[in-house]
Specification:
It is a single chain. The chain has helices at about 1-20, 35, 50-55, 60-65, 70, 75-80, 90-100, 110-125, 130-140, 150-155, 170-180. The chain contains 11 helices and no strands.
Length: about 190
């Protein structure tokens, strides 16, 4: 009975991730081009190909525990190389969201940055770099990290203490509202 419940849970996880990402996991035939082209694969515990394989084999819980989805830069290098057009960045985001939903945040600092970045984009229509840095540093418990970099960046005009907004911030906020209405957390 316990085994059948575990299998059902893994099937449910696979379906949720597929539905959220729009990726059909079985499309991947494990050529490895995604992993070979990934610029951050060296720091991952499982390569992108291995995360897909875990999901294919019904080992979704292992994929949720992985650091890999949290390290994925979403750079699309894997997607552009994939002969089957498996959108791996979308899949990694769906795995990350599912892990977050289940309270299994593997990399707290990446999660803090992700949330701070999205809050900044929702609020201003773009990232406010200085606000993002301050929010991230405070929430990650390192308030003075990179503090000595701020004055030169301010002097050179590379960062601003005041956020710049785009013209139609309301449209961006509407996108976030639609994501939440569809069951996404938007942050």
């Amino acid at each position: 009975m316990e085994l059948s419940a575990a299998l059902e849970g893994n099937r449910d996880l696979k379906e949720r991730v597929e539905r959220a990402s729009g990726v059909h996991i079985e499309d991947c035939y494990q050529c490895g081009k995604c992993s070979a082209g990934c610029p951050v694969a060296a720091w991952m515990d499982y390569t992108p190909r291995q995360v897909i394989r875990l999901l294919q084999l019904g080992l979704g819980e292992e994929a949720l525990k992985s650091r890999t989805p949290w390290l994925c830069a979403g750079c699309q290098a894997c997607y552009t190389r994939c002969p089957r057009e498996v959108n791996l960045p979308r899949l990694m985001e769906a795995v990350r969201q599912e892990a977050r939903r289940r309270g299994r945040v593997n990399d707290r600092k990446v999660d803090i940055f992700d949330r701070a970045f999205l809050q900044s984009v929702e609020r201003y229509g773009r990232a406010h770099e200085m606000g993002l840095i301050v929010q991230y540093n405070l929430q990650s418990g390192q308030p003075f990290k990179d503090a000595l970099l701020a004055p030169p960046l301010l002097m050179k005009g590379k960062i601003s203490p005041l956020p710049a907004k785009i013209k139609n911030v309301a449209e961006v906020k509407e996108i976030f509202a639609r994501v939440r209405a569809r069951g996404g957390d938007g942050h």
